[in-house]
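Possible regression after last week's pipeline update?

I re-ran a chain I had predicted before the update to compare outputs. Posting the input and the new output here so someone can diff against the archived version. Not blocking, just want to make sure nothing changed silently.
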Amino acid sequence: MTVRGRTMLGRISVILLTLAAVGQAQIQNTEALVRAMHDRYAKSWYGTITFTQKSTTYNDDGTTKVETWYEAAMLPGKLRIDVGPAADGHAYILADGNVTIFDKGKEVNSRPLVNMLLVLGFDVYRQAPEKTLQVIGSEKYDVSKFHEDTFEGRPMYVVGAEKGDLQSRQFWIDQERLLFVRLFQPDRADEKRIEDIRFTDYRPLAGAWVAARVEVRAEGKLVFSEDYSDIKGNPSLDAALFDPKQFRAERRP
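New output (post-update):
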C-alpha cells in the first residue's frame, strides 16, 4: 500500500470515529434514547413472532417446576400465552393495556396490566416513540434520571436511577445495538422485593433480534427463567388470537 493510500485510510478512520462519537453524543437523555431505538429498527423489526417457551421456576428448597408455554405476539401491544396442553384452556391475553386470564377455556379475570418487557423488548421498535415514552412515564420510571454504565463488559444506557442505585425502577439498553438488556422493578407480590430481569442470548431474527433466554433474579438468586425454541419471525397470525371475546383454547398459532 502506498503512503497516499495509508493516509486516505487514516482520514476515513478519523471520519468514521467522529461520526460514531457524534451519534453517541446525541443520546444524552431518555427521549433521545427511545427515539434512537425506534429509528434503528423501525423498518426492519418483525411485526409478529411465535415461539415455544420452557418456563422454569426455581423454588427456595432447591426444587424446580417446569412448564411449556406457547407464545405469540402481534406488535405493538398484543401478546398471547397458552400454558400447557390446549385441553387445559389456560391462557393469558395481553392487549390494549389489559390482561385477560382464562382457565378451562373460561375467562376468570381481567385487569389493567402493562408488560414492560413487551414494551421495551419489542413494542419500542414498532410504535411511535411518543407512545413508548408515555407508557414509561405512566409506569413510574423517572425519565429524568439517565446515566451510562456497563453490564457484562458492554456499555449501557440506564434510565430511571442514579448510578449505583439498583433498587429504583430502571431499564438498561445496550449502547451499540440499542437492544433492551435489563429491567429492575418491584415484585408484584411483594413490592419490597426487587426483581432483576435480564434478556440474554440475543440472536438475529427476520432482520432484527430476539433474546432467546430471559432470567428473573431476586435477592441475588435465579427464581425464574424462560428458554425459547421454534422461534419464528413474521409468521402470519389471525388478529382474533388476541381478542379475549373470541378466545378458543384450541385456536393456537
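Follow-up from reviewer: compared with the archived run. Helices lie at 3-25, 30-41, 116-121, 129-138. Marking as no regression found.
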